[in-house]
Amino acid sequence: MSSSSQASQRINALLDENSFVEIGGLVTARNTDFNLKQEETPSDGVVTGYGVIDGNLVYVYSQDASVLGGSIGEMHAKKIVRLYELAIKTGSPVIGLIDSAGLRLQEATDALNAFGEIYLKQVEASGVVPQITAIFGTCGGGLALIPSITDFTFMEADKAKLFVNSPNVLAGNYKEKCDTSAAKWQASEVGNVDVVTDEASIYTQIRELVSILPSNNEDSDSYQECTDDLNRACENLDGAAADPALVAAQVSDNGLFFETKRDYAKEMVTGFIRLNGATVGLVGNRTAIFDENGKEAEKFEDKLTAHACEKAADFVNFCDAFDIPVLTLTNATGFGSSKCDERHVAKAAGKLVYALANATVPKVNLVTGKAFGSAYVIMNSKAIGADVTISWPDTQIGTMDANLAARIMCDGKDAETVAKAASDYAQLQNNVKSAAARGYVDEIIEPADTRKYVIGAFEMLFTKRDERPAKKHGTV
Protein backbone atom coordinates (compact mmCIF):
# COMPACT_ATOMS: atom_id res chain seq x y z
CA MET A 1 0.00 0.00 0.00
CA SER A 2 1.36 3.41 -0.89
CA SER A 3 2.47 5.35 2.13
CA SER A 4 0.58 8.35 0.79
CA SER A 5 -2.84 6.70 1.27
CA GLN A 6 -5.16 8.48 3.67
CA ALA A 7 -5.41 5.33 5.80
CA SER A 8 -1.63 5.31 6.34
CA GLN A 9 -1.53 9.06 6.93
CA ARG A 10 -4.08 8.69 9.71
CA ILE A 11 -1.98 6.01 11.43
CA ASN A 12 1.16 8.16 11.17
CA ALA A 13 -0.70 11.17 12.59
CA LEU A 14 -1.81 9.08 15.59
CA LEU A 15 1.39 7.21 16.52
CA ASP A 16 4.81 8.34 17.70
CA GLU A 17 6.91 9.38 14.72
CA ASN A 18 8.32 6.54 12.58
CA SER A 19 7.03 3.90 15.01
CA PHE A 20 4.45 2.16 12.79
CA VAL A 21 5.19 -1.35 11.53
CA GLU A 22 2.70 -2.70 8.99
CA ILE A 23 1.46 -6.30 9.14
CA GLY A 24 -0.15 -7.97 6.12
CA GLY A 25 0.62 -5.18 3.65
CA LEU A 26 0.67 -7.66 0.74
CA VAL A 27 -2.74 -9.17 1.44
CA THR A 28 -5.30 -8.74 -1.37
CA ALA A 29 -8.85 -9.97 -1.94
CA ARG A 30 -9.18 -13.69 -2.64
CA ASN A 31 -12.67 -13.64 -4.06
CA THR A 32 -13.16 -13.43 -7.85
CA ASP A 33 -16.96 -13.22 -8.07
CA PHE A 34 -18.47 -10.19 -9.87
CA ASN A 35 -15.16 -9.54 -11.63
CA LEU A 36 -13.40 -8.68 -8.38
CA LYS A 37 -10.18 -10.06 -9.85
CA GLN A 38 -10.18 -7.11 -12.27
CA GLU A 39 -10.10 -4.71 -9.32
CA GLU A 40 -6.91 -3.74 -7.54
CA THR A 41 -7.40 -4.36 -3.80
CA PRO A 42 -4.10 -3.32 -2.19
CA SER A 43 -4.01 -4.43 1.46
CA ASP A 44 -7.68 -5.36 0.87
CA GLY A 45 -8.76 -1.90 1.95
CA VAL A 46 -7.32 -1.84 5.46
CA VAL A 47 -3.85 -0.97 6.78
CA THR A 48 -3.00 -2.98 9.92
CA GLY A 49 -0.01 -3.02 12.21
CA TYR A 50 1.50 -1.84 15.46
CA GLY A 51 3.37 1.14 16.84
CA VAL A 52 3.71 3.18 20.01
CA ILE A 53 1.95 6.10 21.70
CA ASP A 54 4.19 7.81 24.25
CA GLY A 55 6.20 4.59 24.29
CA ASN A 56 3.14 2.35 24.87
CA LEU A 57 2.58 -0.49 22.37
CA VAL A 58 -0.74 -0.25 20.50
CA TYR A 59 -2.28 -2.11 17.55
CA VAL A 60 -4.00 -0.04 14.88
CA TYR A 61 -6.12 -0.73 11.83
CA SER A 62 -7.14 2.01 9.43
CA GLN A 63 -9.67 1.49 6.64
CA ASP A 64 -8.88 2.81 3.17
CA ALA A 65 -11.99 4.21 1.48
CA SER A 66 -10.12 4.41 -1.85
CA VAL A 67 -10.15 0.58 -2.11
CA LEU A 68 -13.69 -0.63 -2.85
CA GLY A 69 -15.00 2.07 -0.50
CA GLY A 70 -13.09 0.55 2.41
CA SER A 71 -15.69 -2.23 2.42
CA ILE A 72 -15.13 -5.25 4.65
CA GLY A 73 -14.45 -8.44 2.79
CA GLU A 74 -13.04 -11.78 3.89
CA MET A 75 -9.32 -10.87 3.89
CA HIS A 76 -9.94 -7.35 5.21
CA ALA A 77 -11.65 -8.86 8.26
CA LYS A 78 -9.01 -11.56 8.68
CA LYS A 79 -6.37 -8.84 9.02
CA ILE A 80 -8.34 -7.12 11.79
CA VAL A 81 -8.91 -10.47 13.54
CA ARG A 82 -5.16 -11.19 13.35
CA LEU A 83 -4.46 -7.82 14.96
CA TYR A 84 -6.85 -8.63 17.81
CA GLU A 85 -5.18 -11.99 18.39
CA LEU A 86 -1.80 -10.30 18.77
CA ALA A 87 -3.27 -7.61 21.04
CA ILE A 88 -4.80 -10.21 23.38
CA LYS A 89 -1.53 -12.19 23.48
CA THR A 90 0.63 -9.15 24.23
CA GLY A 91 -1.88 -7.25 26.37
CA SER A 92 -2.02 -4.06 24.35
CA PRO A 93 -4.84 -1.70 23.25
CA VAL A 94 -6.51 -1.90 19.83
CA ILE A 95 -7.39 1.30 17.96
CA GLY A 96 -9.67 1.13 14.91
CA LEU A 97 -9.84 4.04 12.45
CA ILE A 98 -13.14 3.58 10.58
CA ASP A 99 -13.95 4.80 7.07
CA SER A 100 -15.91 2.11 5.27
CA ALA A 101 -18.87 1.52 2.99
CA GLY A 102 -19.70 -1.52 5.15
CA LEU A 103 -20.09 -5.12 4.05
CA ARG A 104 -18.50 -6.02 0.69
CA LEU A 105 -21.56 -7.29 -1.17
CA GLN A 106 -19.51 -9.04 -3.91
CA GLU A 107 -18.14 -11.46 -1.28
CA ALA A 108 -21.55 -12.37 0.16
CA THR A 109 -21.42 -15.02 2.91
CA ASP A 110 -17.59 -14.95 3.04
CA ALA A 111 -17.81 -11.29 4.03
CA LEU A 112 -20.66 -11.94 6.48
CA ASN A 113 -18.73 -14.71 8.19
CA ALA A 114 -15.63 -12.55 8.40
CA PHE A 115 -17.68 -9.74 9.92
CA GLY A 116 -18.85 -12.09 12.66
CA GLU A 117 -15.25 -13.14 13.35
CA ILE A 118 -14.40 -9.50 14.13
CA TYR A 119 -17.28 -9.36 16.62
CA LEU A 120 -16.06 -12.58 18.24
CA LYS A 121 -12.52 -11.22 18.73
CA GLN A 122 -13.88 -7.93 20.07
CA VAL A 123 -15.90 -9.81 22.68
CA GLU A 124 -12.86 -11.93 23.61
CA ALA A 125 -10.78 -8.75 24.02
CA SER A 126 -13.45 -6.93 26.04
CA GLY A 127 -12.20 -6.38 29.58
CA VAL A 128 -8.76 -7.71 28.60
CA VAL A 129 -7.35 -4.80 26.56
CA PRO A 130 -8.82 -1.31 25.98
CA GLN A 131 -10.55 -0.93 22.60
CA ILE A 132 -10.85 2.50 20.97
CA THR A 133 -12.67 3.40 17.74
CA ALA A 134 -12.39 6.63 15.77
CA ILE A 135 -14.89 7.23 12.96
CA PHE A 136 -13.73 9.50 10.13
CA GLY A 137 -16.09 8.51 7.32
CA THR A 138 -19.02 6.12 7.08
CA CYS A 139 -19.71 3.47 9.73
CA GLY A 140 -23.09 1.94 8.88
CA GLY A 141 -25.17 -1.22 9.19
CA GLY A 142 -23.43 -4.11 10.93
CA LEU A 143 -20.25 -2.06 11.11
CA ALA A 144 -21.98 0.20 13.67
CA LEU A 145 -21.68 -2.67 16.16
CA ILE A 146 -17.89 -2.40 16.17
CA PRO A 147 -17.84 0.92 18.08
CA SER A 148 -20.71 -0.30 20.30
CA ILE A 149 -18.56 -3.21 21.53
CA THR A 150 -15.43 -1.08 21.96
CA ASP A 151 -14.81 0.94 25.12
CA PHE A 152 -14.39 4.46 23.73
CA THR A 153 -15.54 6.05 20.47
CA PHE A 154 -14.40 9.27 18.80
CA MET A 155 -16.19 10.88 15.84
CA GLU A 156 -15.03 13.51 13.39
CA ALA A 157 -17.51 16.39 13.71
CA ASP A 158 -18.48 16.98 10.06
CA LYS A 159 -17.81 14.01 7.76
CA ALA A 160 -18.27 11.00 10.07
CA LYS A 161 -21.51 9.01 9.88
CA LEU A 162 -22.64 6.34 12.35
CA PHE A 163 -25.88 4.44 11.79
CA VAL A 164 -27.57 1.05 11.66
CA ASN A 165 -30.34 2.38 9.39
CA SER A 166 -29.66 5.48 7.33
CA PRO A 167 -31.78 8.53 8.32
CA ASN A 168 -33.91 8.38 5.14
CA VAL A 169 -35.26 4.88 5.78
CA LEU A 170 -36.64 5.77 9.23
CA ALA A 171 -40.41 6.23 9.07
CA GLY A 172 -41.33 9.90 8.88
CA ASN A 173 -37.69 11.03 8.77
CA TYR A 174 -35.16 12.24 6.23
CA LYS A 175 -31.58 13.43 6.60
CA GLU A 176 -32.35 17.17 6.43
CA LYS A 177 -35.10 16.83 9.05
CA CYS A 178 -33.02 14.87 11.58
CA ASP A 179 -29.63 13.46 10.62
CA THR A 180 -29.58 10.48 12.95
CA SER A 181 -26.21 9.42 11.52
CA ALA A 182 -24.47 12.69 12.44
CA ALA A 183 -21.87 12.87 15.19
CA LYS A 184 -23.87 15.46 17.13
CA TRP A 185 -27.00 13.28 17.30
CA GLN A 186 -25.10 10.08 18.09
CA ALA A 187 -23.16 11.81 20.88
CA SER A 188 -25.97 13.75 22.55
CA GLU A 189 -29.08 11.63 21.94
CA VAL A 190 -27.75 8.06 21.81
CA GLY A 191 -24.62 8.10 23.93
CA ASN A 192 -22.61 5.98 21.49
CA VAL A 193 -19.80 8.53 21.24
CA ASP A 194 -17.37 9.90 23.83
CA VAL A 195 -15.76 12.75 21.92
CA VAL A 196 -16.84 14.75 18.84
CA THR A 197 -14.14 17.02 17.41
CA ASP A 198 -11.95 17.69 14.34
CA GLU A 199 -9.55 15.07 12.98
CA ALA A 200 -6.35 16.56 14.43
CA SER A 201 -7.89 16.83 17.91
CA ILE A 202 -9.05 13.20 17.73
CA TYR A 203 -5.44 12.02 17.40
CA THR A 204 -4.34 14.24 20.30
CA GLN A 205 -7.15 13.03 22.54
CA ILE A 206 -6.72 9.33 21.71
CA ARG A 207 -3.04 9.72 22.64
CA GLU A 208 -4.06 11.36 25.93
CA LEU A 209 -6.57 8.58 26.68
CA VAL A 210 -4.07 5.80 25.90
CA SER A 211 -1.52 7.39 28.24
CA ILE A 212 -4.12 7.43 31.07
CA LEU A 213 -5.38 3.85 30.63
CA PRO A 214 -3.60 0.63 31.62
CA SER A 215 -2.47 -1.47 28.65
CA ASN A 216 -4.49 -4.47 29.82
CA ASN A 217 -6.47 -5.89 32.73
CA GLU A 218 -3.35 -7.11 34.54
CA ASP A 219 -1.18 -4.05 33.99
CA SER A 220 -0.27 -2.84 37.48
CA ASP A 221 2.55 -0.56 36.29
CA SER A 222 0.45 2.18 34.72
CA TYR A 223 1.57 4.88 37.14
CA GLN A 224 3.17 8.19 36.35
CA GLU A 225 5.54 10.12 38.54
CA CYS A 226 3.41 12.71 40.36
CA THR A 227 4.85 16.22 40.11
CA ASP A 228 1.89 17.88 41.87
CA ASP A 229 1.78 18.59 45.62
CA LEU A 230 -0.18 15.78 47.30
CA ASN A 231 -1.37 18.19 50.01
CA ARG A 232 -2.28 21.00 47.61
CA ALA A 233 -5.27 22.95 48.89
CA CYS A 234 -8.17 23.35 46.45
CA GLU A 235 -9.49 26.79 47.38
CA ASN A 236 -13.21 27.52 46.82
CA LEU A 237 -13.78 23.93 45.68
CA ASP A 238 -17.30 23.99 47.15
CA GLY A 239 -18.08 26.81 44.69
CA ALA A 240 -17.59 24.27 41.90
CA ALA A 241 -19.76 21.59 43.53
CA ALA A 242 -22.52 21.92 40.91
CA ASP A 243 -20.14 20.66 38.18
CA PRO A 244 -18.04 17.58 39.04
CA ALA A 245 -15.94 18.21 35.89
CA LEU A 246 -14.60 21.36 37.57
CA VAL A 247 -14.03 19.54 40.87
CA ALA A 248 -12.26 16.74 38.98
CA ALA A 249 -9.84 19.12 37.25
CA GLN A 250 -9.00 20.89 40.53
CA VAL A 251 -8.47 17.73 42.58
CA SER A 252 -6.50 15.80 39.89
CA ASP A 253 -2.73 15.85 39.45
CA ASN A 254 -1.82 18.89 37.33
CA GLY A 255 -5.49 19.47 36.43
CA LEU A 256 -5.81 16.37 34.24
CA PHE A 257 -9.39 15.32 33.53
CA PHE A 258 -10.44 13.22 30.53
CA GLU A 259 -14.23 13.32 30.31
CA THR A 260 -16.08 10.46 28.60
CA LYS A 261 -19.49 10.62 26.86
CA ARG A 262 -19.27 14.42 27.15
CA ASP A 263 -22.47 15.34 25.31
CA TYR A 264 -24.71 12.57 26.65
CA ALA A 265 -26.71 12.70 29.91
CA LYS A 266 -24.77 15.75 31.03
CA GLU A 267 -26.44 15.53 34.44
CA MET A 268 -23.92 12.75 35.17
CA VAL A 269 -20.18 13.29 34.71
CA THR A 270 -17.83 10.38 33.98
CA GLY A 271 -14.11 10.49 33.22
CA PHE A 272 -10.55 9.85 34.35
CA ILE A 273 -8.32 11.81 36.72
CA ARG A 274 -4.90 11.10 38.22
CA LEU A 275 -4.25 11.04 41.95
CA ASN A 276 -0.61 10.69 43.03
CA GLY A 277 0.19 9.37 39.56
CA ALA A 278 -2.51 6.65 39.55
CA THR A 279 -5.53 6.69 37.23
CA VAL A 280 -8.90 6.96 39.00
CA GLY A 281 -12.38 6.83 37.43
CA LEU A 282 -14.66 9.67 38.49
CA VAL A 283 -18.48 9.63 38.50
CA GLY A 284 -20.49 12.62 39.72
CA ASN A 285 -23.97 14.21 39.76
CA ARG A 286 -24.04 17.54 37.90
CA THR A 287 -26.56 20.33 38.40
CA ALA A 288 -24.91 23.08 36.32
CA ILE A 289 -22.38 23.84 33.58
CA PHE A 290 -20.67 27.22 33.77
CA ASP A 291 -19.39 29.36 30.89
CA GLU A 292 -15.94 30.98 30.81
CA ASN A 293 -17.27 33.94 32.84
CA GLY A 294 -18.49 31.69 35.65
CA LYS A 295 -22.17 32.13 34.73
CA GLU A 296 -24.53 29.16 34.57
CA ALA A 297 -24.77 28.07 30.92
CA GLU A 298 -26.88 24.94 31.51
CA LYS A 299 -28.87 23.72 34.52
CA PHE A 300 -29.94 20.22 35.52
CA GLU A 301 -32.07 18.80 38.31
CA ASP A 302 -30.27 16.95 41.11
CA LYS A 303 -31.96 13.72 39.97
CA LEU A 304 -30.78 10.35 38.71
CA THR A 305 -32.16 9.99 35.18
CA ALA A 306 -32.26 6.69 33.30
CA HIS A 307 -29.63 7.88 30.81
CA ALA A 308 -27.37 9.13 33.61
CA CYS A 309 -27.54 5.79 35.43
CA GLU A 310 -26.71 3.82 32.27
CA LYS A 311 -23.81 6.12 31.44
CA ALA A 312 -22.38 5.77 34.96
CA ALA A 313 -22.93 1.98 35.10
CA ASP A 314 -21.07 1.38 31.82
CA PHE A 315 -18.19 3.54 33.03
CA VAL A 316 -17.93 1.80 36.41
CA ASN A 317 -17.95 -1.61 34.68
CA PHE A 318 -15.02 -0.50 32.52
CA CYS A 319 -13.09 0.74 35.57
CA ASP A 320 -13.70 -2.50 37.46
CA ALA A 321 -12.59 -4.63 34.50
CA PHE A 322 -9.29 -2.76 34.28
CA ASP A 323 -8.68 -2.43 38.03
CA ILE A 324 -9.16 1.35 38.06
CA PRO A 325 -10.35 2.73 41.46
CA VAL A 326 -13.61 4.72 41.47
CA LEU A 327 -14.34 8.08 43.09
CA THR A 328 -17.98 9.21 43.21
CA LEU A 329 -19.22 12.76 43.88
CA THR A 330 -22.75 12.48 45.28
CA ASN A 331 -25.33 15.25 45.02
CA ALA A 332 -28.70 13.63 44.26
CA THR A 333 -32.15 13.89 45.81
CA GLY A 334 -34.26 11.51 43.74
CA PHE A 335 -35.05 10.11 40.32
CA GLY A 336 -35.86 11.73 36.98
CA SER A 337 -39.61 12.05 36.63
CA SER A 338 -40.23 12.32 32.90
CA LYS A 339 -42.28 9.72 31.02
CA CYS A 340 -39.06 8.45 29.40
CA ASP A 341 -37.45 8.08 32.84
CA GLU A 342 -40.42 6.23 34.26
CA ARG A 343 -40.11 3.79 31.38
CA HIS A 344 -36.42 3.06 31.98
CA VAL A 345 -35.13 4.46 35.27
CA ALA A 346 -35.78 1.46 37.55
CA LYS A 347 -33.85 -0.86 35.25
CA ALA A 348 -31.11 1.70 34.64
CA ALA A 349 -30.72 2.49 38.35
CA GLY A 350 -30.56 -1.26 39.00
CA LYS A 351 -27.67 -1.44 36.53
CA LEU A 352 -25.83 1.31 38.41
CA VAL A 353 -26.41 -0.40 41.77
CA TYR A 354 -25.14 -3.63 40.26
CA ALA A 355 -22.06 -2.01 38.71
CA LEU A 356 -21.01 -0.25 41.92
CA ALA A 357 -21.88 -3.10 44.29
CA ASN A 358 -20.22 -5.66 42.02
CA ALA A 359 -17.01 -3.66 41.51
CA THR A 360 -14.14 -4.96 43.66
CA VAL A 361 -11.82 -2.00 43.04
CA PRO A 362 -11.23 0.63 45.76
CA LYS A 363 -14.36 2.83 45.99
CA VAL A 364 -14.48 6.22 47.66
CA ASN A 365 -17.63 8.37 47.90
CA LEU A 366 -17.46 12.14 48.43
CA VAL A 367 -20.79 13.77 49.36
CA THR A 368 -20.70 17.32 47.96
CA GLY A 369 -24.34 18.44 48.29
CA LYS A 370 -27.64 16.76 49.09
CA ALA A 371 -27.80 12.98 49.38
CA PHE A 372 -31.44 12.00 49.81
CA GLY A 373 -33.39 8.77 49.65
CA SER A 374 -32.71 5.87 47.34
CA ALA A 375 -30.70 8.14 45.03
CA TYR A 376 -28.14 8.55 47.83
CA VAL A 377 -28.04 4.80 48.45
CA ILE A 378 -27.46 4.13 44.75
CA MET A 379 -24.65 6.67 44.38
CA ASN A 380 -21.95 4.49 45.95
CA SER A 381 -23.13 4.66 49.57
CA LYS A 382 -21.61 2.52 52.33
CA ALA A 383 -24.67 0.28 52.08
CA ILE A 384 -23.76 -0.96 48.59
CA GLY A 385 -20.05 -1.29 49.22
CA ALA A 386 -18.22 2.05 49.29
CA ASP A 387 -14.97 1.52 51.22
CA VAL A 388 -14.67 5.11 52.46
CA THR A 389 -17.27 7.89 52.59
CA ILE A 390 -16.12 11.48 52.97
CA SER A 391 -18.36 14.53 53.21
CA TRP A 392 -18.07 18.30 53.13
CA PRO A 393 -19.47 20.05 56.26
CA ASP A 394 -22.57 21.70 54.76
CA THR A 395 -24.01 18.63 53.04
CA GLN A 396 -27.33 17.01 53.89
CA ILE A 397 -27.80 13.24 54.10
CA GLY A 398 -31.21 11.76 54.79
CA THR A 399 -34.41 10.30 53.43
CA MET A 400 -35.79 13.47 51.82
CA ASP A 401 -36.00 17.25 52.01
CA ALA A 402 -36.95 18.26 55.58
CA ASN A 403 -39.93 20.41 54.53
CA LEU A 404 -41.40 17.58 52.47
CA ALA A 405 -40.84 15.09 55.28
CA ALA A 406 -42.54 17.42 57.78
CA ARG A 407 -45.58 17.86 55.52
CA ILE A 408 -45.96 14.06 55.28
CA MET A 409 -45.43 13.42 58.99
CA CYS A 410 -47.65 16.32 60.14
CA ASP A 411 -50.41 15.93 57.59
CA GLY A 412 -53.43 18.00 58.69
CA LYS A 413 -51.51 19.92 61.39
CA ASP A 414 -51.11 23.72 61.44
CA ALA A 415 -48.27 25.57 59.69
CA GLU A 416 -46.35 26.25 62.89
CA THR A 417 -46.23 22.54 63.81
CA VAL A 418 -45.09 21.66 60.29
CA ALA A 419 -42.35 24.31 60.38
CA LYS A 420 -41.14 23.09 63.79
CA ALA A 421 -41.09 19.46 62.57
CA ALA A 422 -39.14 20.52 59.45
CA SER A 423 -36.56 22.30 61.58
CA ASP A 424 -36.21 19.32 63.94
CA TYR A 425 -36.00 16.87 61.04
CA ALA A 426 -33.27 18.88 59.33
CA GLN A 427 -31.32 18.99 62.59
CA LEU A 428 -31.75 15.38 63.64
CA GLN A 429 -32.03 13.45 60.38
CA ASN A 430 -30.64 15.48 57.48
CA ASN A 431 -27.52 16.71 59.19
CA VAL A 432 -24.25 15.20 57.95
CA LYS A 433 -23.22 14.80 61.59
CA SER A 434 -26.18 12.53 62.29
CA ALA A 435 -25.07 10.31 59.38
CA ALA A 436 -21.50 10.35 60.70
CA ALA A 437 -22.76 9.45 64.20
CA ARG A 438 -24.25 6.27 62.74
CA GLY A 439 -21.03 5.45 60.85
CA TYR A 440 -22.42 6.15 57.37
CA VAL A 441 -19.84 8.92 56.88
CA ASP A 442 -16.20 8.30 57.86
CA GLU A 443 -14.80 11.83 57.69
CA ILE A 444 -16.18 15.36 57.45
CA ILE A 445 -13.55 17.53 55.76
CA GLU A 446 -13.15 21.09 54.54
CA PRO A 447 -13.59 21.31 50.74
CA ALA A 448 -10.09 22.82 50.36
CA ASP A 449 -8.58 19.60 51.83
CA THR A 450 -10.38 17.28 49.38
CA ARG A 451 -7.33 16.34 47.28
CA LYS A 452 -5.27 15.41 50.33
CA TYR A 453 -7.98 13.25 51.90
CA VAL A 454 -9.04 11.50 48.71
CA ILE A 455 -5.43 10.61 47.86
CA GLY A 456 -5.00 9.34 51.42
CA ALA A 457 -8.09 7.14 51.15
CA PHE A 458 -6.95 5.53 47.88
CA GLU A 459 -3.40 5.04 49.20
CA MET A 460 -4.86 3.23 52.20
CA LEU A 461 -7.02 1.06 49.90
CA PHE A 462 -4.16 0.25 47.51
CA THR A 463 -3.87 -3.38 48.63
CA LYS A 464 -7.64 -3.99 48.83
CA ARG A 465 -8.77 -7.58 48.17
CA ASP A 466 -12.46 -8.34 47.83
CA GLU A 467 -13.74 -11.88 47.30
CA ARG A 468 -17.23 -12.51 45.95
CA PRO A 469 -19.38 -15.68 45.87
CA ALA A 470 -18.25 -18.02 43.10
CA LYS A 471 -20.40 -17.65 39.97
CA LYS A 472 -20.01 -17.48 36.22
CA HIS A 473 -21.36 -13.92 36.01
CA GLY A 474 -24.31 -11.87 37.22
CA THR A 475 -27.41 -11.29 35.11
CA VAL A 476 -28.25 -7.60 35.62
UniProtKB/TrEMBL annotation:
<dbReference type="InterPro" id="IPR029045">
    <property type="entry name" value="ClpP/crotonase-like_dom_sf"/>
</dbReference>
<feature type="domain" description="CoA carboxyltransferase N-terminal">
    <location>
        <begin position="1"/>
        <end position="177"/>
    </location>
</feature>
<dbReference type="InterPro" id="IPR051047">
    <property type="entry name" value="AccD/PCCB"/>
</dbReference>
<protein>
    <submittedName>
        <fullName>Acetyl-CoA carboxylase, carboxyltransferase component</fullName>
    </submittedName>
</protein>
<keyword id="KW-0808">Transferase</keyword>
<dbReference type="InterPro" id="IPR011763">
    <property type="entry name" value="COA_CT_C"/>
</dbReference>
<dbReference type="Pfam" id="PF01039">
    <property type="entry name" value="Carboxyl_trans"/>
</dbReference>
<feature type="domain" description="CoA carboxyltransferase C-terminal">
    <location>
        <begin position="229"/>
        <end position="460"/>
    </location>
</feature>
<dbReference type="GO" id="GO:0004658">
    <property type="term" value="F:propionyl-CoA carboxylase activity"/>
</dbReference>
<dbReference type="InterPro" id="IPR034733">
    <property type="entry name" value="AcCoA_carboxyl_beta"/>
</dbReference>
<dbReference type="GO" id="GO:0016740">
    <property type="term" value="F:transferase activity"/>
</dbReference>
<dbReference type="InterPro" id="IPR011762">
    <property type="entry name" value="COA_CT_N"/>
</dbReference>
